[in-house]
Structure formats: C-alpha cells, structure tokens
C-alpha cells in the first residue's frame, strides 16, 4: 500500500506555516511594498524627458554631489575611527570602558532631530568646540563640513558593531603562532588580523554610507541648507513637496530609492559572502 | 542593513573564549594608551560633548524655564501624540516580527532570502521618502485622496499618517532581532513540545517566546526608541499643526526654528533621556544574554 | 503496542534517505536501529514519530494505519539526541509539560500532576533536581530528565534518537544498562537509534542494521554478530580482517594459500572477499602440520588490557592482519616484535563478487 504525498507538503511538521507566512507577506505588502510602488507609479506621470529634466537639474545634481560626497567622507572617517574604537574596546582595559561601549550606540538611540540641534550647538561659531576651531579659519556649522560631521555621527556605530564581534572571535592562537614565527606586532596586524576583519570593515563602511545617504533630521539643522552649497537631496524632496510638486519630488525620490536598493543588495551580498567565508574558515 | 539592530553574535556564543592575552600578542604600553587616547578624543568630540550640550543648553535659563517648557500645553500634546504613535506601532511590528521570524526560522521555503531582503527594505529607504509614499497614497492628490475626502477621513497631516510613517520606519527591528536568534535555536524544543501533545499556540507561548524573550525585549526597545524619535518621515506627513499633529521631535524643531533654544533643548533633553534609558536597557539585556550563555556553557 | 513499517521511502532533494524500508516491531520489544551516520536511521525514527512524513509507504500502530496521523495524536515518547529540554523551565515543569498542555477535559489536576511528576523523577532517580534548570544539569542527568519527560504522557511507544551519543564513555555505559533495566520494568515498545555497535548489541532485543537507506539485516544481537549477511554488516559489527580471494569449490585462495570455507562448494573461479575476526586468528611459532597458514612478521604488539592485539605483516607484503589473543596465550607463545610466525585463520566467511565497501564510518 503506497500513499502519495505532494512534493510541497514539506517535511516540516511544525504548525502555523501558512498563517505566519501569510500574515508576513500581507503586512509587508500593506506597509512597505504597495506604498513603495506608489513612488514608482507616480513617476510614470512624467515623460522620460520631464523626468530627466527634474533629476538632472543643476541644483539637484549639486545636492547629489553633497549627499554622496559627504556620506562617503563620513563613512571613511567612521571606517578608520570605528576600527580603532572596536580594537580598543576588544583588546584593552581602561576605566569607563563599559560606559564607552554602551555609548557607541547613542546615534542609534538618539532621535536625529536632537542630534542635529546638539551638533549645531556644539560646532557653531560660538559653540563649545566651534569657538576654538573658527579662529583657525574653519567653519563647521552651516557649511558642507557640518554635513560631514552630522553624517559621521549617525554612521558611527556601524563599523564598530560589525568589526567588534569579528575581533572578539579571532583566535589568540593564530597571533601567537605568528609571533612564534618571528612576526612583529605590525606584521601580525597587517598579515594576520587585518585580512580576517576587512570584510566586516567593508560591510560596516557600506552600512554607514547607506545610512548617511538617506539621513535628514540630523543634517538639516547643521547644514545651513544653502542651495548648491549645503543642500542635501532629502531636503530637495521636502522642498518640492512643500511646493506641491509631487511628481518631481517623487522623481528625485525614485533616483534615491534605486541607489539605496542597489546598496542594500550589495550589502546583503557582502554579508552573505562574509558569513560563507566565516563558516568556510571555521 | 541588519547590523544596526542585532545583538552581536558573540554575545550568544564564545563568550568565554576571550583568552587572556599573553605578552607576545599585545602592543607596547605607549601604543596602547595612544590608541585609547585617540578613540576617547574621537568619541568625546562626536558623542559625549553633543550629549552634554543637550542638557547644558536645556538648563541654561534655569530649572523653572525648563519645567515651563515641558509643561507647556503644546509640549504636553506632543508627548501624548508621540506615546500614541509608539503604542500603536510597537505592538503591530511586534506581532509582525514574531510571525515573520516563525515562518523564516522554522521552515524552509523558496524565496526566503528575497523575503528577508524585503523585510530590510525600510532600513534602506530615506525617512523622507517613507513619509512621501504615504502622501502619494493618502494625500489630497493621492490614490485614495478624493475617497478619503468624501468620507471626511484625514490620514495625511493627521494622526493616522504619523502612525503609518512610524510603523514603516520601525518595521524591521523586531523581525531582524528574532530571525537569527530563532534560527540559532533550531526546532528541537518545538518538536519536543509537539510530541508531548502541545498545540501550535501552546508551543509558541510556552516554548518559543520564553526562549527568545531577551531578543524580543531588545527588539521592542529599539522599535520604541525609533518610534518615539522618528523625525524625517513624520515631518513629511504631519503638517506641523501645533498642539495637534506635532510629535516630540517635531516640537523640538518648531521651538528651535523660533529661536526658542532653551525650550527646544528642554524638550530635546526628554528625548535624550529616552535614548540613555534605551542604551541602559540594551546593556542590561546584553548582560542577561551573556550571563545565560555562560551558564549554558559552564555545564 | 506493535509497529509495522511498510515500504517507506523518503528523499531529501536528490538524496535518498530511506529506500523501501519495511520493518515489524513486536509489542514490548527493545529494538536498536544501527548504522553509520547518514544511513537514514534517524529519519526512520522521525517518520515513526510523525516528525517527518514519508514520500510513500505506511506505518501501522497495533494494526491501525497511523501514516497520516498527527504527531500529537500518535502517543509516542521521543527522546531527542540533544535532549531538547526546555531551557527556561525547571526540571519539574519540563516533565509536567506534556500533562499541562492537555485540553481541560483530560488534564489532570495540579495535585495529580505533581504526584505523577515526582513519581517519574523518582523512577529516574533525580527527584532532588526538580527545581533546577536544564543548563545546571550534567549530560547524564539531562538524558534521564528527557526520558522522564517522554514517559510522563504514558506513551505507547518510546523512541530514542542516539540516546547516549552526547555522553562520555563511563556515563554512557551506566546509562545503557539502566535503560535496559527500565525497559524490563516498563515493557514499552522502544526503538533507539545508534551508530555504536557495542551499544546496540548490549542493550537491545533485536538489532536492525541500516546502510544507505536500506535495511541490511534484522536479528538478535547474537545473530547479527555471529552471522552477518553482508560484508557491510561484517565490517560494521566489530573488527574484521578482509582479504581479496579466489573462490573455487569450497576453498578460498588468499595469496596462494587455500582455506577451506565450508560453503560455496559449487562455485568455480570467482572473485570474493573473505572475512575473519581478529579473535579467529590463531598464531603459532612453528608450522602446525599440514593446515594452510600465512607466514607473517609481528609488526606491532599492543598488550594493554585483557586482550593482546597484534599487527602482523604478511610475508608476501600484501597487507596487515590483525589478531587478538588472550594474555595467557600471548605469554605461552612468548612473542616479540619482529618475530616470524605462522597465521591460521578460522571461521572464514566469504562473500562472492563484492566490491569492497569503502564507506564504513
């Protein structure tokens, strides 16, 4: 007596698959997918030439340059100092370490508007830090440098939190082996430690970069928002919205969305690769 | 963009693997302290000074001004609206997170990795765009604009829009927290429950959820922090009507733009306290998880 | 309760985990499913429990078709390989779980649950651990709690997946004797999965040897050990010497030496594999009359324990022979490394035209 079962009746006998997956897809569609598709559908109101005219207008292009340039510099600063921070937190003991470790996540937890006004207060010409730097001829608040400061702040935890666990899980033995073979500390770092952590570093960098591109709240207070100089792309979208130019606001939004999605896929691919590499190595 | 929320994997495993480092694999003392000094300087400039500035500026004009700013009717109504938005967004995303994690962690199906990526989407979208898409759908010129107008329902520039935008930006947090955790725990305990006669809901309530309670709490803390602090997305859909559609962060912006700095920072200090409490709870959860992991490994 | 398994097939993708497996387990028996890892034994156990569904075939509990019955309704007890104890519950709550999740009508009262749980904890001799949490227990204790938990629902069938696999050698020995005694007390039809032949032979009433998704042999421990039906079973159950040989009219020719094999009298000039257990290798310092023997050099002597193990290099350089002697016999022979000896295999068993099984775990 043979009973036939459909191939799709999966081996798993735990209940609730249809309910949980059904609800997941329903909720995902309702909250995320359908609303996001509205942006793409809205742009079809514009002809391609109109679309192109909007997204390649000089003021919009200047905002791309600022947004991507400042995000890139912010992410690079975070790559360097995030790596240092992760290293110090994992390897060294010093007073207040636990508090510092917890504070690294502050940019995740602090509302961006608060970060924005706080950074402005600190880095303005009469601020705690600004008053020391302005006499040197460097203006931070209300210039593109201010944008970089804000984007560095909001991207700060990413590199630290991606590199930290990898550093923690490095086996002391490999470093001891390197030392026993005659390598000095710097050689051990460049030849043993860095090759192990650079994929995580790259992931953290990409995450910080992606986060910075879309950032709005912390930037607008410190940026000064001067067209062609310190105006970021999300602000362009808001400005167009306030002038009821929905289609052109959406056109710029679509450009940003496409870039963000590409980054997301790249990051997911990167993380997949890192995980596979990690499991292959272990 | 999962990293922002998940507990470091190391918190769950390998906690005891931190071998005391021997001489051969540590840096000279001067190098060590130089590196520590650089890091402390960097973090002071970017984290500690701005944080301190919030509280200093808030109290600059004295404690009375501080209290007045917080008890202002507009401030109180913005607090209320912020709490309402979080009270709706957090439970909804919690239920979603549990459902998504159950489907993804306990079952194999085609398109799973695509689903995980889609759940991440809101992290990749600029908050401004998150607000924009709801305006496109529910705004006056939007898909449902005229229908809503006919029935006198306001979504955009009203509380429902704020709630929707908040749900969107906090969408992935709980799911991202639970998925790796539940994947790591496998299915054996659930199967044991099944063999012992438990129903699906009994398994969920009595076995699965208690096992991921810290991760769940962690996800809720992060969702809540973001829900109460969201600025960009809410700003687009709120319409900034004082006393009606202003959340706390929006109220900060209004006061700031009116050059009422002391009041702006006073309200901001509330949000900063919320952030500090969030960090404290987060550290507590991490400590709990690490301790549990240690007990697990000891035996 | 008896279990009949009929023509079960199960594929995972292109991998065939079980290929037409049929098995009857009489009521009250303790059966071992024995095989190397990946042979399909755990899959079979999970199919019996209802944790996996077979692609085809059927399962009957006491004559009634249970193939599509839900896990919850099968009334089986399952002990997981890593115990799957509920981490966040005390030992008491773990054992009580199966009773507490019953629908209101059939759920025992709290007092009754308490009584039954303590009874079971006493049965597994761990009543004093009732308030501990699983992570605080040793491996052996967790094992016994998992068993008590499975027994709490009064299962008709007890299924155990590698029940001793995660334990160290000493605890493992203790626990398997204890399981045997427990089974003699309770007489629940029980099936356990193991890759350890010693465990299977010592504990079970019957052994089912499985390889590559198919049953190789079913029999009492004595039967499968003394009369393996295939080279696989021969190699899997205990150490064995394997020789390439030519079979001709009741004789196996191994490297020019003809051994009587008391079988295959009508076979002519076929290739085959000959098997001899190490304890069936007899060793003499001088040639013992006319009987056929290998000449060999003692390559290595391992004399720790009650048995002495010898590695012998055949004079024709075609491989090593392993032999086991009692200490007494070893002293009697007064052997030393490098010495030339004569090797007399007894109880040679031959399988014709078999490829050499390579994948023995």
Topology:
The complex is a heterotrimer of chains A (282), B (299) and C (361).
Chain A: H1 17-43, H2 48-55, H3 58-91, H4 97-103, H5 106-109, H6 112-123, H7 130-133, H8 144-169, H9 172-180, H10 185-214, H11 217-223, H12 233-242, H13 246-281
Chain B: H1 29-59, H2 63-71, H3 73-106, H4 112-124, H5 127-138, H6 145-150, H7 159-169, H8 173-185, H9 188-195, H10 200-211, H11 213-229, H12 232-238, H13 248-257, H14 261-298
Chain C: E1 3-12, E2 15-25, E3 30-34, H1 41-49, E4 56-61, E5 64-65, E6 76-79, H2 91-100, H3 110-123, H4 139-152, E7 157-161, H5 169-186, E8 189-194, H6 197-203, E9 206-211, E10 214-219, H7 221-226, H8 231-236, E11 241-248, E12 251-254, E13 257-260, E14 270-276, E15 281-284, E16 294-302, E17 307-314, E18 320-326, H9 327-333, E19 340-345, E20 349-352
Parallel strand pairs in C: 3-8, 3-9, 6-7, 7-8
Antiparallel strand pairs in C: 1-2, 1-4, 4-5, 9-10, 11-12, 11-14, 12-13, 14-20, 15-19, 16-17, 16-19, 17-18
Helix pairs in contact in C: 2-3, 2-4, 3-4
Written description of the protein model:
- The complex is a heterotrimer of chains A (282), B (299) and C (361).
- Chain A is an all-alpha fold and 282 residues long.
- Chain A contains 13 helices and no strands.
- Chain B has 299 residues and is mainly alpha-helical.
- Chain B contains 14 helices and no strands.
- Chain B is globular and about 65 Å long.
- The N terminus of chain B is likely disordered.
- Helix content of chain C is 25%, strand content 34%.
- Chain C contains 9 helices and 20 strands.
- The radius of gyration of chain C is 25 Å and the shape is elongated.
- Chain C starts with a strand and ends in a 9-residue tail after the last strand.
- The chains are: A mainly alpha (282), B mainly alpha (299), C alpha+beta (361).
- Chains in contact: A-B, A-C, B-C.
- At the A-C interface, loops of A face strand 1 and strand 4 of C.
Features:
A: 282 residues, mainly alpha, globular, disordered N terminus, C: 361 residues, alpha+beta, 6-stranded mixed beta sheet, 5-stranded antiparallel beta sheet, 9 helices, 25% helix, elongated
Quote the beta fraction of chain A.
Answer: under 5%
Main sheet specs of chain A: none
Helix content of chain A: over 70%
- The structural class of chain A is mainly alpha
State the secondary-structure class of chain C.
Answer: alpha+beta
Profile the largest sheet of chain C: 6 strands, mixed
Average pLDDT for all residues of chain A:
88
Roughly how many Å is the radius of gyration of chain A?
A: 24 Å
Q: What is the 3D form of chain C?
A: elongated
Low-confidence stretches of chain C: 355-361
**Spatial separation of the terminal alpha carbons of chain C:** 33 Å
- N-C termini distance of chain A: 47 Å
Number of helices of chain A: 13
* SSE arrangement of chain A, N to C: HHHHHHHHHHHHH
The radius of gyration computed from the alpha-carbon positions of chain C, rounded to a whole number of angstroms, is 25 Å
Percentage of residues assigned to helices of chain C: 25-40%
Number of strands of chain A: 0
- How many extended strands of chain C? 20
